[in-house]
Each structure stands twice: as C-alpha cells, then as structure tokens.
Amino acid sequence: MRLLVTGGAGFIGSNFVHLTVRERPDVEVTVLDALTYAGDRASLAPVADRITFVEGDIADAELVDRLVGAADLVIHFAAESHNDNSLSNPWPFVQTNVVGTYTLLEAVRRHGVRYHHISTDEVYGDLELDDPAKFTPETPYNPSSPYSSTKAASDLLVRAWVRSFGVQATLSNCSNNYGPYQHVEKFIPRQVTNVIDGVRPKLYGTGENVRDWIHVEDHNTAVWAIVERGQIGETYLIGAEGEENNRSVVELILELTGQSSDAYDLVSDRPGHDMRYAIDATRLRTELGWEPRYSSFRDGLAATIDWYRANEAWWRPQKDATEAKYAQLGR
Ligand code: NAD
Ligand code: TDX
User: Fold this and answer.
1) Whose CB has fewer CB within 10 Å in the chain, the N or C terminal residue?
2) What is the per-residue pLDDT for 142?
3) What are the tens digits of pLDDT across the range 307-316?
4) Residue 287 near residue 220 (C-beta atoms within 8 A)
5) Who's near 317: CB < 8 A, 6+ residues apart?
6) What atom in ligand 1 is closest to the CA of residue 37?
7) Who's near 263: CB < 8 A, 6+ residues apart?
8) 203 lines ligand 2 (CB under 6 A)
9) pLDDT number for residue 127
10) Which is it for strands 265-267 and 114-120: parallel, antiparallel or unpaired?
11) How far apart are the CA of 145 and the centre of ligand 1, in A?
12) For position 211, what pLDDT does the model report?
C-alpha cells in the first residue's frame, strides 16, 4: 500500500511515520512536508532510508496532484498547530489549514484516493470545569481561536467533500498529545526544557485550565484503527481519559525532575484561553476495539522527560528563538 503522509516532519506526523515503519513494513511511506519552523527532518532521521521525503507545500496544487495520484491513501497531519502563534499572526493558519486542506481534497477527489483527516478537539470550543459533559461527535462546533476555527473550517470542507462529491474520507478529532519530538513551543516540552535549563516553568493565568492528555503513540494507533476499520464519512473522537489541570502537570514535571513542587511562575494568560477539553472516546473503543497502550500519564510523562534529556541536540536549536517569542508576549 502506498501512503502519503502530510506534515510527517512535525510532532505527531513523525511519530506516525516511525510507528508505521516499525509495525507495518508492507506500507510504502512518502512524506510531504514544507519544513516550516515546526518541521524538522531530524525527526525522521531514524527512518530516513525507509521512506521517501518530499519538501513542499500542501497548497501547491500541481505537486499535490502528482503525489496524491501516486498514492492509495492520504493521511493529512500538516497544519499550523500552535494557538499562541495564531493569535500573533492568523494568516498562515488560514492558508495552510484551510487552503491546504482544500487543495488535498480536490486532489483526492480527482484521483479517487482514500483520505483521513487529522483534527483537534478544539473545534468544539471549551467546557466549564464543573461540567460533567465531555465532547462527543454530536457536540456542536464552537471554536475559539484562529487556530481552532481554521481546523473547524477544514473539517467542514472534508464533510462537504464526502457528501457532495463522494470522497472516501474519515475524520478524527484528538485531545492534547505529548511525547517525543514535540516542539518546545508547546506546554509540556517548554516546561521540561525550562527545568533542564534551570528556568522556572510558566503557567498561564491561574493554571486551572484542564487538558485531556494522550500519548502521541496512542493517537497514532487510533488513527490506524480508523483508517482500517472506520466508516467512510464518520468522525471519531480520540482520547484516553487523561484530564489534568495545567498546574498539576507542572507539579508532576517538577516532582519527576527532583524540584520543589512550587518552583513555577504564574504569567499573563492567553487571550480567549479555553478552560477545559474532555473527550468521550466510547465509539473508538466499542466500535473499533481500540485501547491505549499508555495507561499511566505519570509513566508516559517520565519517559518523555527522559527523551528530552537524551535528545538535547534535537530541541536545543529551537529553544532560544521560541523563548524570545514568548518574552515579547510577556509569557
Ligand atoms: P506540528 O506543528 O508539530 O507539525 C506540523 C507539520 O506540518 C510540520 O512538520 C510543518 O513543517 C508541516 N507543515 C506546516 N504547514 C505546511 C504546509 N503548508 N505544507 C506542508 N507541510 C506543512 O503539529 P502537530 O502537533 O504534529 O499536529 C499535527 C496535526 O495534528 C495537526 O493537524 C493538528 O491540528 C493535529 N492535532 C494536534 C494535537 C496536538 O496536541 N499537538 C492534538 C490534536 C490534533
Ligand atoms: O508556557 C505555557 N504555559 C501554559 O500554561 C504554554 C505554552 C501553555 N500553557 C497552557 C495553555 C493550555 O491551557 O497549557 C495548555 C496547553 O497549551 P499548548 O501546549 O499550547 O496546547 P493547546 O493550546 O491546548 O493546543 C494543543 O492541543 C490541541 C495543540 O497545540 C493543538 O495543536 C491541538 O489541536
């Protein structure tokens, strides 16, 4: 089977390629990635001789047409993915997340190629801290940020291309991922690398916001389950019962690194900061028989901290520029 992975040099995409090469040797993988600030060929170095890498933009219609025409399946991870960046400069989010997805959809429509769309739980907006509800596939879309609104727009394009043109697509909306190869702009790697550098972790606002954490490998095994056993046109929510507030995540990082649990700073809040995300993944478990491999957030986080300690050469080149951006925002 010939698989085209977009965004395969990013965090989740590179982990997906590693998993696929390791566990599905029959799959021929081509990665299409523009190598933005968030993409790094070094993330694919361990599998470089097992895949084909193409540097290019998902909004380049000619290139996309050629690559999609040579594939049996497209899995679309590429995106502008960071909420804080989307508040500073929304345009690349509209271009990549909306126009880029449109370009891929037109190509899979022309070539009749199976397509899987990777999205986020942030399309549903947020929940109150004391709300017993979780997101389900029936929750109305209500995105808050330029990032989540462009992801929501891309999801709606996929649904329309399924209904209007019969495109063979599935969608998944996953909660917050953690694990190796995540850019140091994101919450967990930022705090872990801060602690390694002797800098105090930085919590936005009061630190009460809740995210539903899932190990990136569990996201990716769920994507394979949906691609292989999911129903065309359907949306699957991916999550692993990992609700934690940001303060408790920072306290756990401090504990696991031998620091005092109050050695963090509260900084100014993100504008429009979503309070809580929570996923009901019943359908994935009951319909598709998926189960996460990482049952303990504590163990997964400890392994992730070990990975950042052992792979400083991978993240160090990004660290200063990332912190300079945050310094400008006062965060
Ligand atoms: P990331 O920012 O780490 O990686 C994105 C990758 O896409 C990079 O390699 C980048 O170079 C590439 N890219 C960006 N614009 C491109 C373009 N125009 N053409 C080709 N390549 C381009 O992101 P991530 O965290 O790995 O997220 C991957 C996907 O998963 C995204 O669609 C995101 O919305 C979704 N998602 C992420 C999370 C999370 O917690 N990180 C959770 C749910 C869903
Ligand atoms: O330094 C920080 N301090 C802090 O308190 C950073 C960078 C973040 N935070 C907070 C904001 C959020 O409540 O931590 C939480 C997680 O922040 P991010 O890592 O920026 O993730 P989030 O905004 O929740 O979005 C992530 O999950 C859903 C991904 O970046 C998205 O791509 C995905 O769709």
Assistant:
1) N
2) 98
3) 999 999 999 9
4) no
5) none
6) 11
7) 200, 201, 254
8) yes
9) 98
10) unpaired
11) 16
12) 98
State the CB neighbour count (10 A cutoff) for residue 282. 12
252-258 contacts, C-beta under 8 A, 24 or more apart? 252/297, 252/298, 252/301, 253/188, 253/191, 253/192, 253/195, 253/201, 253/301, 253/305, 254/195, 254/201, 256/298, 256/301, 256/302, 256/305, 257/192, 257/195, 257/196, 257/305
Closest CA to 272 of 108, 107, 86: 86
Minimum CA distance residue for ligand 2 atom 16: 187
DSSP annotation string for 49-115:
GGSEEEE--TT-HHHHHHHHHT-SEEEE------HHHHHH--HHHIIIIIIIHHHHHHHHHHHT-EE
Q: Which residue in 243, 240, 252 sits closest to 298, CA to CA?
A: 252
Contacts of 293 (CB under 8 A, 6+ apart): 215, 217, 218, 221
163 Cα–ligand 2 center, Å:
33
Q: Which amino acid is at 75?
A: I
Q: What is the pTM of this model?
A: 0.99
Distance of CA 270 to the CA centre of its chain: 19
- Examine the predicted complex and report whether its ipTM is higher than 0.90: yes
Q: How many CA atoms lie within 13 A of 157 on its CB side?
A: 23
> Which residues of the chain have a pLDDT value below 70?
none
CA 178/CA 198 separation, integer angstroms: 22
- Measuring CA to CA, which residue among 75, 99, 108 is closest to residue 7? 75
> What positions carry a catalytic annotation?
121-122, 147
